[in-house]
Amino acid sequence: MPTRILLWTDGPGPYIDAIAAADLTSRVTVEALARKDAPSEAQRAGTEALLAWGAPAGLLPQMPKLRWAQALTAGVEGWLALPDLPPDLTLTCARGTHFQSMPENIIAALFHLTKPYTAAVEDQKHSKWVRRVATPLNGQTLGILGLGAIGQDVARLASALGMRVIGTKRRTEPLAHVAAVLPPERTDEVLAQSDFVLLLLPATPDTENFMNAQRLAHMKPTGWLLNFGRGHLIADADLIDATRNKRIAGAVLDVFRQEPLPPEHPFWTTPGILVLPHIGGGHPRRDTIVAKLFVDNLARFLDGKPLREVVNRSVGY
Catalytic residue at 230? Predict the structure, then answer.
C-alpha cells in the first residue's frame, strides 16, 4: 500500500515535481494542504510522513501513523517547544538549504557597513558630489560564532577578500579559511579580537540571550554585531544600550524574537542598528532546493534507511 504523505505548505508544486522526478510517485499517496487549513480527520488518521513549517500543540498526538516530519526550516525551536511532540517521531530539518543565499547576504552586510554606496545614493537625490572613502575589509577580523556549513562558506568568501577569520565551534578541528577555531568557552577571546562578529548559533536553551551586556562588553568599541542566526541570541535591551552608548559601533539584524518586528520596537529607531526583514536565507527557488533534501529523505524513509539532517533533541538542532 502506498505511503501517505501530507505536504502542508502553500507551494507544494516543487515537492510534487521532485517526487515524480525521483520516480517515487507509485510508492506514495500525496496530499497537499494550505498553511491556513487544518488537516482533516482522514489526514490526521492516515498521514505517515509530513512536510510542514510547524504544527500547533495538540495536533501531532492525533496522528497515530505519523513516523517522520520534515521541517521546512533549519531552525526547529517551534517544533521542540511543543509540549506534546511525540517522543518516537523522527524530526528532520532543512539544515543546509540556505547555503546558496545566506553567505552572499552576509558579505553584502559587510560591504554595506564599509562602503559608501548608500550615502552616495542619498547624495545623488540632492545632486551633491561628496567625496567619500570606503573602509577596506582587507586585514580586518571577522569572528564567526557558529562555524557550521554556512559559517565555513562565509569564511571562504571573507578570506578571499583578505579578511582574517576566527570563530567558535563545538568540535575544534582545523577548518579551511579559518585562522583559529576555538571552543564556545573561549567566545570572549573571539569577541575581543573581531572587528565584525557574526552570529550563526542555533536556538537552544544555552544560547538564549547569548549576546548580553557582559559579552557585548568584550567587543571592540568599533566592532559591529551581525545576527543572521536566531532572534533570541541577543538580549535586545542590552544591545540597544550598548549601541546608544557607543560601546559598540552598531548591529545588522536579520532575525528577531518576533517577526515581523513590531513597529514600536526600539530597534527601528536606534541609531547604528540596521533592521533587515529576514532576507538572509531567502532564494527565488528555495522550495526547489528544499525539495531536493525532502525527496532524498523520502526515498530513505521508504527504504528504511537513515534520514539526513535528523534533529538531535538533546542539543536542540
Answer: yes
